Amino acid sequence: MTQRISKSKRFYMMNPIIQFFKFIWLSIKIMLVVAGGHGGTRKANN
Amino acid sequence: MSKIVILGAGISGHVAAAHLRRKLSKEHEVLVISPNSNYQWIPSNIWVGIGRMKSEQILFPLAPIYRKKNIGYKQAKVTTFHPEGDIEVAKPFVKIEYVNDEKKGQTEKVTYDYLINATGPKLAFDMTEGLNPGTNKAYSVCTYTHAEHAWQALNDLIQEMKQGKKVKILIGTGHAKSTCQGAAFEYILNVEQELRRHNVRDKAEVVWIANEHQLGDFGMDGMLLSYGNNIMKSSEMVEMVFEDRGIKWIIGAGVNKIEDGIAHYETLDGEYHTETYDFAMLIPAFSGHGFKAFDKNNEDITEKLFKGFMLVDADYTPKPYEEWSVQDWPETYQNPSYKNIFAPGIAFAPPHAISKPRVSKNGTTISPAPPRTGMPSGITAKLVADNIIDIINGKKELHHKGSLGNMGAACIASAGYGMTKGSGVSITTYPIVPDYHKYPETQGRQLGKTFGEIGLAGHWLKLALHYAFIYKAKMKPFWWLIPE
C-alpha cells in the first residue's frame, strides 16, 4: 500500500461539512453537464 | 390510433414507455414486452454485492405500475422480428413467447405501428470457458440475483479470513472484449472498503484484471479531466486510487478460461498467464441476443435489422481507427430499412469501439467494447419516444437527436459505502465519444465539463441518485422533472 493521497487531502475528502458543500456543488455541476442538452454531430460539422 | 411496442423494461425500455404514456393520449396504445417481472436499478447492484443493500431496495414489480399507468405489459421474450408481417398478418409484428407461470411456452404474434427494441445486451458468459456466475468461485454483479450470490460467497470468505485465512480476490473483466469496466471498478473499491470495515484487509490480496491497455480507459479511450486545479489523465487518477488502497493490477489482459480458482488470460504482448484466486467477480462480454428477422414471404432478412445488435442510423463502413469520427455515431437510433423501428440504449449496434482497438501478438483482440449504459440509455430512449410522438403528430422529420459524440455523461462510481465512511469517484465526461477535431488538445473532450472528484460527497450523490431514479421509475408525482 502506497500513500498517494495526503492527510490534508484525505481530511478534505472525508470531512462531512466540507463534503456537504461539495455535494451541493457537484449536484449543480453534474446537472449542468448532463442536462445541458444534446444533439446530433453531422450537420454541425458538415 | 397508434400502437407502440417496447421490447425490454430496463432503463431504456422503461424510460421510453413512461414518456410515451405521459405524452400520448389514451387512444394510443403503449405495450411493454419483457421477460423480467421486476424493474431493477442496475447501478446499485454493487451494493447488493457487498451486502449493504437488499435486492428489494433496488427493484420493484413492473405489473402493478404498468397497470396503474395504463401501459400494457406482457411478461414474455421476443423470438423473431417480422417487420413486413407475413402471409397471415398484414401488419408488422414480433413473435413472443411467454415466460410467466400461467402462459409459459405459449407464443403470440404482437403487431405494432412503432417498435422500440430496448432489449439491452445478452450477458455472454458462455464466451469465456468456465465463466458462469456462482461456479469456479467466480461471480457477477450484473443482475441482482448474481449480486446476491456474490455477497453470500464474499461473506463466507470474510468469515474464513476472520479465522486467519489469507486469500486473493480478483475483480475485473472476464473476456478480452468485455465492457462495463466501471461496474467492476466500483465493485473492487467497495469490496476493499468492506474488507477494512471487517478488519480483514491485511488478510487479502486484492487484484484488478482488465482488458484495458491502461487503467481508467473504461472503454472510452480514457480521458483527460479537470481534477481540482489540476489536469489529470483518468489513468493517473485510477492509479492513484488503486495504489492508495493497495490494489494491484493486471491490464491488457484477455481472460479466456476459468477453472476452479484459476483465471487463464492472454496479455497484449502475446504471453499466456494464470492468476489464482479465492473469490472473483468478472464482467462477461456483452453480445446481441441472436434475434432473427423475416420478411412477409418468410425469407431471412436478419442482416437488414441486426449486426449482433440492431442496426441504426450509424455509419458502419469498416475503416481504420485513424479515420473514425463522431459523425459515425447514430443520432436518432432509427433502423435504416424499417423506419418504424428504433433501438436506443445498449440495443443498437455501435459503429465501432471508442477505445483504440488492440490486438495481441497472437492476433487476439484485447480491447474494451464501448459502454452505452446508464444515462445515455435513458437519454436515447427519451429522444426516440419524442421522435415517435412527433411522427404520430404528423411531423415528417426526426427533430430529436442525441449522438454520443454530442452528449455528456456522469459516472458516479461508488468507492465505498457509508454515510460518514463512504466515498465516491465522480466523473463527468463531455462528449462521451471523443471529438478529436473539436477538442484536439484535450484528448477529444471539453475540460471543465470533463472532470473528476473523489470524496464522501460522491457517495452521497450516488445514494441520492439511487433514490431519485427509483422514484422516477415508479412514476411518482412530477417524476418527469428528474432528468435522465
TrEMBL record, chain A:
| The protein, known as | Uncharacterized protein
Could you list this entry's UniProt keywords, alphabetically sorted: Membrane, Transmembrane, Transmembrane helix
Source domain of life is: Bacteria
Taxon lineage: Bacteria, Pseudomonadati, Bacteroidota, Flavobacteriia, Flavobacteriales
- The UniProt transmembrane annotation reads 20-40
UniProtKB/TrEMBL annotation, chain B:
Report the Pfam families cross-referenced here.
Pyr_redox_2 (PF07992)
Span of domain FAD/NAD(P)-binding: 3-278
GO molecular function, one example?
Answer: oxidoreductase activity
Signal peptide residue numbers:
none
Q: Which PANTHER family match?
A: FAD-DEPENDENT PYRIDINE NUCLEOTIDE-DISULPHIDE OXIDOREDUCTASE, PTHR43755
Name of this protein = Sulfide-quinone oxidoreductase
Question: Organism, per UniProt?
Answer: Maribacter stanieri
